[in-house]
Each structure stands twice: as structure tokens, then as C-alpha cells.
Amino acid sequence: MSETNPAATAPVSADAAPHRYTAAMAAEIEARWQDFWDAEGTYAAPNPKGDLAGDPELVARPKKFIMDMFPYPSGAGLHVGHPLGYIATDVFARFQRMTGHNVLHTLGFDAFGLPAEQYAVQTGTHPRVSTEANMENMRSQLRRLGLGHDKRRSFATIDPEYYKWTQWIFLQIFDSWYDDEAKKARPIAELVAQFEAGERAVPGGRTWSALTEAERADVLGEYRLAYASDAPVNWCPGLGTVLANEEVTADGRSERGNFPVFKSKLRQWNMRITAYADRLLDDLDQLDWPEAIKLQQRNWIGRSEGARVDFPIDGERITVFTTRPDTLFGATYMVLAPEHPLVEKFTPDAWPEGTRDAWTGGHATPAEAVAAYRAQAASKSDVERQAEAKDKTGVFIGAYATNPVNGERVPVFIADYVLMGYGTGAIMAVPAGDQRDFEFARAFELPIRCIVEPTDGRGTDTSTWEDAFASYDAKIMNSANDAVSLDGLPVVEAKERITEWLERTGAGEGTVNFRLRDWLFSRQRYWGEPFPIVYDEDGIAHPLPASMLPLELPEVEDYSPRTFDPDDADTRPETPLSRNADWVNVTLDLGDGPKKYRRETNTMPNWAGSCWYELRYLDPHNSERLVDPEIEQYWMGPREGLPHGGVDLYVGGAEHAVLHLLYARFWSKVLFDLGHVSSAEPFHKLFNQGMIQAYVYRDSRGIAVPAAEVEERDGAYYYQGEKVSRLLGKMGKSLKNAVTPDEICAEYGADTLRLYEMAMGPLDVSRPWDTRAVVGQFRLLQRLWRNVVDENTGELSVVDVAEADIDADTLRALHKAIDGVRQDLEGMRFNTAIAKVTELNNHLTKAGGPVPRSVAERLVLLVAPLAPHVAEELWRKLGHETSVVHEDFPVADLAYVVDETVTCVVQIKGKVKARLEVAPSISDDDLEKAALADEKVVAALGGAGIRKVIVRAPKLVNIVPA
Questions:
Q1: Which of 860 and 772 is assigned the larger pLDDT?
Q2: For 304-513, CATH number?
Q3: Is residue 389 very low, low, confident or very high in pLDDT (cuts 50, 70, 90)?
Q4: What is the pLDDT of residue 920?
Q5: What stretch of H or E contains 26?
Q6: What is the DSSP letter of 870?
Q7: Candidates 3.40.1190.20, 1.10.1740.10, 2.60.40.1930, 1.10.730.10; correct CATH number of 774-897?
Q8: pLDDT of residue 12
Q9: Burial (0-12, 13-18, 19+ Cβ within 10 Å), 268
Q10: C-alpha span between 273 and 666 (Å, rounded)
Q11: Does domain 902-961 have CATH number 3.10.20.590?
Q12: pTM score, whole prediction
């Protein structure tokens, strides 16, 4: 590739040393090379075909797809903590280019989100206007860091040409069902064909042709991977919207705004992610992810084996899931979640005769008791409801079910410690073996039957127990009927026997349960992707054809969802889109003539756009299909070491373990099943960077004060004369301790900032920011500059010397640095790579005299991934006409890497008595002889005999005297 030489136009500084590397020079160099990279398309990664096809030689190289997690364009801009991961991936991407890879590295913006909408509510500014201004500011800040992104591939999720395909993917999911036999998603049309042909029984026993269109829609809704349902949701009146579980704090309030959140039933869109629970679990084993993240996903999915048991009640049944069917004989009551849909069905008009006062909650009828208790439970978070230490509350619903193993009538309660979101929303309560059941039984004077033989000496009289006894090692007792006996069996065998009995009698079956719930996919907001769904006059949902996409957001006068009294749980959402009647009510021809329809007025959650953005990076201008198959296969297809395909390296925060990462995996698997992509996983290797922290200073009121204005005196800290406290924490505008990258770039240059952030410590560990320490990396660059350029004349100070004439110490220092830096960059150990570069640079400085050109060139190449601007400048000054970006990374001569000698420690009785300089390859025998012949060792032994000599060549000899 032919490139011009921008270094030729560099101005001369008027400093005392006119060509010294200064902040002003750094700023000029960096701006000039950034312009050059943009003009030349230096970081353009060619595709094998399409509008981004390019250099065939690059395409033929091994590929490397490197990604950062999508940034949200905040109005506050970046502080120095934000670019940590971006700089790291940039360093790694540059190294990969220099080691022979075609590297795709770019960055877009996850630009839908509540902050922009709230700003619109406050100011009347359209969310797109503020968001685009924020993106422009962030682009400017990121460009200043010298990040090598392929800018042709960048986009934002708010671009209609992007969310057209988000909507299209939603329609693929809507038009799909999960075939449990094939273990994959299939088009819904194939399910309809099975119903029509009678190959699959229609629920309810009727034929498909006998169903009305609305009935067919209801049947298909039970299968679709995207479906609408009336379900318990987290309703936040103070925000006017429904929240996902992950958006609710542990104390039952909204993450944003800190408003109370209530459980309420609303018609919402859901994604049937639960259909993929097994595959989401199993495929984790093939991913190169941190074990901590894998564990979080496994726990969130929560696979557990047990049995489904049916408890007859009034001619019907209540179904429970239990992991301990062996304790079924100990079930003395049942509990339903307050939201359980069967509660109303089985609640009688009056209390049964003999109902205890403690069971009624003081209410005249079961219906009153249930209504009051439901209202009470709706105001609590799931965490509060399951708190171990709290008093157990509940009410009897006035009905009894039958325990299928012994025919006993067991009362049915509702209680807030049972959640609708886990299992079936109903439990068989075994108070002898579960602490929560035990406490509830004691509170409501319910029987506690010992069914597991205690091994702790407490005996079998439960009236004397202070707590429940649970064990997987004890034997079962008091558990027999005429057909089956578990008495005397260990737990595992007992579980197998009772499960077999349940299946034989039709009272239940062995099954697997998951903690994972379907993904709530509706938001009552304006600033999100519109659903490509319309409803006919009968309320049946119809997908828009692809030709009508994108369905763009309309203009509205008021951006806010209607908010309500935060404590009023009985309110219902009113969305901003619903106020634009001309947009909501439309006449469309969906293939059977023009008809009137009503659009869906919820929008998709902000997670939608980030579920598939890795695919858009591959083929960003394709208006005809999601992604070209050949391009997707090239960048993300399965290959050796990547059995499910995916991005080669994905870097971001660990906080997205069970949100974005789980959702993106789900979407990827659906697209894979339907044949749209070859990669069943989106991200093969995941790396979680740590956090840059900063000290927060607070006055006596606990209010943060500007960190930059705090003075330290005698180990204490003062702000405007008042003593303040100091605590290490997050960096942020609200904490008044944020340092912007612009400030550091202005004072030292972007290359210095890059080096400092990479040198602070291991990338995956959090570390404190210290502006005073930044100067150390600036001095490294000054010494590097000085080793290549004469600060007074601006001319090269290097000398042309044949390799054979370079002194051996310098060659050893050079090749050790090359070998070490190469290994460190490959392993993303950037802090130790910088240490090795510093060591080599210091060696050249201390050696004195001009640096050999070949050594200087390789030093510059080592620095290039870390400090690319100064590397480009020095590379051109060294006479090269092409960019350093695509130069080959140096290769070490291993003959110089191996030390000529190593230090061997000789110990007698564990104490060091001598140190020997020996060859690294010395044998055990030769090392033993050398140690025993050493005069210090001979003197230390003093003629004593030797019982044993332990040799660990080449570094240790341990002598044990007789």
C-alpha cells in the first residue's frame, strides 16, 4: 500500500531543547497521525466479498475479530476509567495485525436508553438530538486516544437501517417455536402444518380446522418463542413502566429513580428463553470465559432435577415441582404464591367449618383474606419475600388438597415466601425438612412429621425441635403406603423409588426444573425500537412483512410515560406512543386486502439492540439481508478451537453476566437454528477488565467535595480548611472525582495516557487512579525519543551497525525484551510488557553512545501497539515509507534469550552458604560436584559427613550433613 509521509511536515518546537518530546509535540504528532490514519483507511479490515471487500492478501491471513462491549453515549462524556478496556483491545488488535492477522476492530453505540428519554422529559429535547450530540462528543474523545477502529463499520442502534434488522430478528423469533424432539427452533409454519395434518394433537382435543382464527392464535401463542401474555410483572408507577427482574434492586425498588416496584398482571411481550435453558448451560463448557461468569450463568439458569407431583383438589389438581420427592410423606400443607392463577379458582365463598382463627388473618371470608394478603405481598421485592430472618406470614385460602401418597387432606395457603417465578409457583410444604416451612408450620400450628431419621441426636419428636433437619445422608422413615415403602432407604434410592411410583400411578413424573424465567421484553417508553406488530379488530397480533421495515418511531408531543403515585400499585401504564393516534391506528394490506389495525405501543427494551450487534459489524451496509453468509462464516464461523464460532475476543465488564451475555447467546442460538448464521454462540472468548477507581472525599455531612481541590497535610485531608474523609471507590461526575482523558491528553499526550492505564496493573484487576504517577510513562516516552532523535537538531541519533558488531549485552537485552513482550501482549499482560520495554529502553540509555539503528527499529516496533503515535513518528524518522501498523512484530533470536549463566543457591541445613554461577544446561551430577567443591561449602561442612544431597539443577543444591 502506498502511503505519504506526514512526518515530513512536523513543526519545530521553540523549546530550549527545540526537539525534545513535550506535551505540545505529542499533541501535534498525535493529531497529525490520527488524520493520516483516517485519510488512508489504515484500520480498514477487508471482507472476503461485498462493499467492504479489499486487499486479497489481508483476507487470506488468519482473521481476528476483537470487540468491546457497546458503550452508551452518556451526556457526561468519558472519564479516564471508561477507556481502560478500549485501550486494551486496541493494543491487542494492533499486536494481532503485526503478527499476521486480518483484524476487525470497530466500535458502535448502544444508543437507545432511559437517560436520553428522561432528559427529553425534563427539557423537551428530542432523545435523538441529545443522543447524537453525546455520540459526537464520545467519538471525539475516543479518536484522541488513537484507537484503531475500522470506522466504516460503526453505527448506532438508533439508526433506522440498524433497528430494521432488530425488528426483523424479533419477527424471526415470533414466527418460530422450539421443537423439543429436534432440540432446535423451527418456523411456526411447520407447527401449523403438523396441526393441520393431524400429526400433532391440538390442545383441547379439537381439530385445527374447527378452531377460529383467535383460537388458533391462542394455541400458537403457547408455542411461539416471542409471545404476549398476561403475566406477573414488576410494575413501577413512579417510572410509569414495567421493569425486568434485573432492573429491580434487592429492596424492591427501581434501579433508576429508586421508586417502589409492585407485582402486577399486565399484557406484555416475552421471549421464551427458557426453551434454550439446557443448551445455554451445556454450551458454556465450550466457551473460553472466566469461570466466575460461567458460574453466574449456571446459577441464574438454575437447573435442578426432581419430580412433578399432582395434588388433587376439587376434581382438578395443583402441580408442584420438588427436588426431594422422597419427602412427600412429610408434606402436611401446601403453599401457593399469592399471584398464582389458581388461587381464585379454589377460594370458596366461606370458611370451612373448623378453620382456625390464626389461618384467616382476621377476615370474614377467604376472598377478603386473599385480596388483603395479595395487596400486602405486592409491595415486597422477591428478596424481601424470601428473607430467611423475617417472620412467616400467609393466609388459608379455604381449600384442601389431597396428598397423593397417603390420601391426607392438606390445607392450602398463600404465602409471600413462595414465588410465582420459580417452579410452578406452588410447593408441598415439608416442615420437618425445610427451615422456612418449619417456621411457617410453627406460626400456623401445622403438623410437623419426621420423615428423615435425624443423625444429630435430636430424636424424632418434632415438638422438641428448634429447627428443621435436612440431610442427604440420612435414611427415610415414616414413609410407606400399601403400594410403596421408602422406610430405611437412603435419599438417592428413595427418590428413584417414589418417582417410579408417581409415574406408574399417574400422580406425577420425574422432571427437570430451571430457575430461569422467560425474558420480559416490553417497555412502556418512547425511546426504544417499535414492535413490528399490529392487532386486528379481534385483538389478534399480526407481524409486519419485511418490506414494511423499518417501522420508525413517530414524533410525539410528550416523551414521558404517564407516571403515577409511586405507592399506587393499582395503576396501569400509558405509553408515549399511544398518544399518537395517527400512527397507532392504520390501514394496511398484509396480503388479504386493506384492513384497519392498531399498532403495538410498547417498545423493546434497551437490551434488544445489543443482542446481535456483533453481526452488524461484519456487514454494516447490507440492506438486503441480516448478514451475508460467506462474510459471517469468515469472521465468526466455527473452526478449530471455536466449536460454536463467535467473536475471538470480547472485552467488557462482569456486570453483564446474566443480562446482555445471556440474552445475546439466546438470540444467537435462535438465528443459528433457523439457518441465518453459522455461529451458535456470539462470543467465544470473554475477558472482564477491572475498574479504575478513585478516592472519594466527603465532608462532615457526607457530601462529596471536589477531589482536585483537596489538600493533604500530615496524613489528613482538607477541603477549604475543613477536614474531610477519604475512601477509595468509583470514579464519576457525581462523586466529584472524575478525571477526563482530555485533561491527561492535554498535559501529557494520548500515548502517555495509554501507557499509564496499561501499566497500572493486571487488566482484570481494579486499580486506583493517581494523576501524579502518569508522569512516569511520559518520561519513558521522552527517553525513547531521546534514544532515537537528537533533541537539539531533530536529526536521527542512531548509527548504522552490523548485527555482528552490536555488543552482546545489548543483543541479549533486545531479544529478551522481544520474546517477553511478544508473550505478554499475546496473553494481554500489558503491564509486564511495558515493564520489559522500559527495561530495554533503560539499558540503551545507560549504555551511552548512539543506539544501533536495527536495535532502535525493533524497539519502536515493540512500542507500536502500546504508543502508536510516537511509534509512527519515529518509524518515519528512521526512514520507512509505510505505516508501522502493518509491519511485522519482531521475532526473538532464542540464542540470546537463554541466560549464559544462572545463579545456583547452595543450602546446608536449609541455610544459604554459597551461590554459584552455572550454565543453564548443567546436569544434576555436575552441579552436585561443583557445589561440593566450592570453598565456602567445604568450610561450612567442616569435615562433617554428608547424608544426602538434593539437587534441582540449575538453581538449587540442598546438602543434608550426616
A1: 860
A2: 3.90.740.10
A3: low
A4: 87
A5: helix 23-40
A6: H
A7: 1.10.730.10
A8: 41
A9: buried
A10: 6
A11: yes
A12: 0.85
